[in-house]
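Moderator note: this is an archived Q&A kept for reference. The question asked for a predicted structure of one protein chain; the sequence and the answer are reproduced below.
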Amino acid sequence: MRVINRVMREARPWGWFRAAIAAGLTAGLLTAAFNILVSEPVLDEAVRLEASASPTGAAPEEDVFTRGQQHAGMILGQLALGAGVGLIFVGLGYLRGDQSPGHGRRRFWLILAGMFAWSFTILPAVKYPALPPGVESTLHVGERQAAYLALAMCGVLGVLAAVWAVRRTARGRFSARGGIAALALLAPAVLAFFLLPDDGVVDTVPYGIEFPYRLVSITSQLLFWLSLAFIGWWLLNEPAGGESRRRLRVSGKAAER
């Protein structure tokens, strides 16, 4: 443990771009490993139950790609997702500016990761949970995607409103600030829950496969965001006394002038 703490103190802090890309790719790889070990067996069971529940009891038609090829595609897809999210974080970081050490970049990183996890994973999992094979919905694919995007945007709006509320009430009591922030965070989501259509599920798979399928689905997504948040936070570490040394160098250069 002391060795890890020493490395954390003495390691040179990573730049925002390198940390974002490395964290995204690593999170994608970890999620892919979880999917292969945990999610894929649940998916296979869902497909088997779908076949057994059909009137003829026939197995579904053979896929164009083998399971090995599908696994390889899933891994590449997770890596592409991680790289894409990393690039989004890069853009948002540079739009904010001041991503040099000592400007709260680790806190900003965690806010971004939390905003994406809340908006694109937690809220949709409650309102529009993943549908396993054999489960049908009255919503067309386009309608479901549009509702998902609208719900995600409400989540983003709630996070931005909560951050703004915390800054505006910086001198207030902690309990009051927390209550106002929670209200700002949840208000757009609650409004969206009432206004957006229900998931419209009309058919179910027997033997209760829906719960484990949805459980591994949200766990996989949360694993991605949690690992992204931790890895990026760790890579953006500050060496002990780094900020004070930077200020001394700046003041020294100013004095020389």
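Archived answer notes: Residues 34 and 222 are 11 Å apart (CA to CA).
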